[in-house]
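User: Hello! I'm new to structural biology and keep hearing that structure can be predicted from sequence alone. Could you demonstrate with Actin-related protein 6? Please show me the input and the output so I can see what each looks like.

Assistant: Of course. The first part below is the input, the amino acid sequence of Actin-related protein 6. The second part is the output, the predicted structure written as tokens.
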Amino acid sequence: MAFVLDNGAYTIKAGFSNGPPQIIPNCIMKAKSERRRPFIGNQIEDCRDASGLFYMLPYQKGYLVNWDVQKTVWDYIFSKDCLSTSLNNCPTIITEPPFNFAPIQEAMVEIFFEEYECPSLLLVNASSLSQYHYKFLHPETKACLVVDSGYSFTHIVPYVNGVKVKEGIRRVDVGGKLLTNHLKEIISYRQLHVMDETYVINQVKEDSCFVSQDFFKDMERAKTKVESNPVVKDYVLPDYTSLRRGFLKDPEPQSEHQTLRLNNERFAIPEILFNPSDVGIRQMGIPEAIVDSIKACEEETWPHLLANIVLTGGNCKFSGFHERVYKDLRSLSPDEFKINVNFPENPESYAWEGGKLFAGDSSMKTFLSTREEYEEEGPGFCCDKFSGCM
């Protein structure tokens, strides 16, 4: 048994490998209604009024920079209020982003050995655990390409024979945070000032946005009058007395609740994942980045990579995301290659499930750094040992 901690920038997926994970927001929040009390992780469910929340985030631009916030969230996760667990009797697997900085790795190793008294530890990329999960389910595959679209970035990582192809890794600087912030700006400009309502607008994004299969056709539909417009919807905002979370409904002339009228922003927001230039980011969209990543690998691996693409991360949950990635890839790839885009049942916890499976693999022990090694050789030695994992 091992403890698996998928330490994402938006949520932490944590739990022992013999059970399911708990998904906990990786932040500290303060509310206008209860100024004295900070809400750590999923304590936000206790907040009476979640409007105007102020966030303190441990991650900025995909990397762990605020150690005080992160340590507070970790302390909460291991406390009796959450998982009520200790790490001092089993190995711990923690995820980190690709190309993580050495000082961040070493500080993480130090905290888990010194503060949480881990007997042994492994730092590994979330995409590597996703690849292990996919290979476990499809043992005959020789290569696999992981698309991890998360809070800060979208990473595309190819694996050949279980080994990461570093020159093929691509990063698109678009993630869930950028999409939520852009939606806040659009709604604030068109209807209602919501720049302080990150929590609520994130829910609006999750409940109402979808990926268009034909952007220009949907734009034409969105221009028609409300009666004949299949895109336009009203989003009923929560009032935190009778309604804790908003919902989508057909447009009505009058409503007793405060509503947002959503039209083309429903599909224009996720479109940024496919066309970052829409918001001035001069980069390829996800399908072009996948093709570019594959072209950086050896030519004989191309058909294997195209036939084994797996989508992970919270952004993959947008309705139509999977179909659009397949459609765009089909038009960008040679006809003779078969394309298979795998969409897991829960893309958010796919890497954690991979860690759970890896914990039962006898080879895991060879990559673990022990407390004795840390005390004798230092954190740098431990990080060098981790780099051999996948």
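User: So the tokens describe the shape?

Assistant: Right, they're a compact way of writing down the 3D structure. Reading them back into a model, for example: The mean pLDDT is 91.
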